[in-house]
């Protein structure tokens, strides 16, 4: 049975050099054309066996090749986008995790490793940017040759940085070593030092991947005969071609003229393959430097551009399945329908999220779930008037939000926003979008808390200072120290015996008039309705008299430790007369 080329996912932390690595492999400059140099959609690059044989020659090794090549999928930096998959399993057979050798395993990198571990996807690590090691003379040649030409001090510094990565992997439960020191690749993670900038170590990575695939994945890579199945990577308009579907075929064979079922935002559509266009070897399906070749059929695994008469509503991440047997049409349609529905847990109360693709939507949902942020609605497409209206129905003001990943706001939605208190937060990087929401949420919480506090009498305890009576009465003016809580004007004072006396007319600090004073402040206050020496005394502790309803409301407001202590003291005084006061 013939062997297909393995699908290799390239992933890692943002800015650690994933796309630049593939640029070096294929000789293109896709990284320079990405917005912010952060890949947001999966792309595919086919490396044929001829290029692999050239890499083998550079290394001076002898390998019998049974694989036709490698198909690289360039993933975004953050692990959440790994949800772009062949439903039921990871789309990739192997993975290359690109790590900055000086930064080591960043938190997002570790999370990516955990997902690879859960999916049981074999992976190697490309320890990138060895050219930044002090004293390292980086060259466009295999690492194993370059290493021998380095100074002893540069070798030691590189090895020391490598041991940091090895240590972090050990803490995660993995045994690892430099690839040329490993005897059993089934028990150890291979680390290949490299420089995507200079090209150093690229051949080493390619040959390590080939070795792993041919040794451990032979059975999984056997080509299955039958109708083609794939995942839509991107829907795009091509000059002279119209709407095209960039697709990874991961199973079976797809032929020109085949009837196919494709997932959409709504119900699956059945259509026919009009053309199959394949990028030339070593080119990039998203951004080719040369024209495509038109072909009659393609067998997994391959990156292909599909043209069909009908593809309205098709979104990235949607499945594509060919129908070779008419009696299986209903079964295929049902299967595509199930796979087109985003796997997101929906709650009655939560945020509304919008994204440009199923994988993006699920990636955003994954991040929100990790932060325990609920989702009420999730859909692919631009923000519409209906989305605004749905967000307005949320009871919690912190949920009157729409998170929009890489989508536009339609004109009707903009009009609806003018009369709405709904907020739209947009970004084209998922984890930044979640961070933006969390920042907005904290700011809203502070604002809501401040509004609540303005409406409620807060607990306060103060002491009249000795020898600080400036006027005995009409109004009495005394110096006080705030022992706990917050003192505000227009508040009645409560004595320890439960009597309510006087009202605070003003608060001053020297020549400055204040609206409030807080714990630790020493200020002068004017009190109407009392005389010092009669109703109040120097060195006496007093409290702010609180309405019982306000004491109850404070249960829903976060108080400081001292505010809680003073509130309990006030309750104790009030409950002498009314046992269940404030309960």
CATH architecture of the largest domain: 3-Layer(aba) Sandwich
Predict the CATH topology of the largest domain: Rossmann fold
Oligomeric status: single chain
Indicate the proportion of strand residues. 25-35%
Rg of Cα set: 33 Å
**Record field, number of beta strands:** 29
Overall pLDDT score: 86
Measured distance between first and last alpha carbons: 77 Å
Q: What is the fourth-level CATH superfamily of the largest domain? A: P-loop containing nucleotide triphosphate hydrolases
Low-confidence regions: 28-42
How many domains make up the 3D coordinates? 4
Helicity, as a percent range: 25-40%
Largest sheet data: 8 strands, antiparallel
> Which structural class should the secondary elements be placed in?
alpha+beta
Short overview:
By secondary structure, the protein is of the alpha+beta class.
What does this structure look like?
- It is a single chain.
- The chain has 583 residues and is an alpha+beta fold.
- The protein has four domains: 210 residues, Rossmann fold (3-Layer(aba) Sandwich); 112 residues, Elongation Factor Tu (Ef-tu), domain 3 (Beta Barrel); 105 residues, 3-Layer(aba) Sandwich (Rossmann fold), CATH 3.40.50; 115 residues, Elongation Factor Tu (Ef-tu), domain 3.
- The chain is 28% helix and 29% strand.
- The strands form five sheets. An eight-stranded antiparallel sheet has the order 12-11-17-8-9-16-13-14. A seven-stranded mixed sheet has the order 2-3-1-4-5-7-6, with helices on both faces. Strands 22-23-28-25-24-29 form a six-stranded antiparallel barrel.
- Strand 25 and strand 26 form a beta hairpin.
- Helix 9 packs across helix 12.
- The longest helix has 26 residues.
- About 3% of the residues have low confidence.
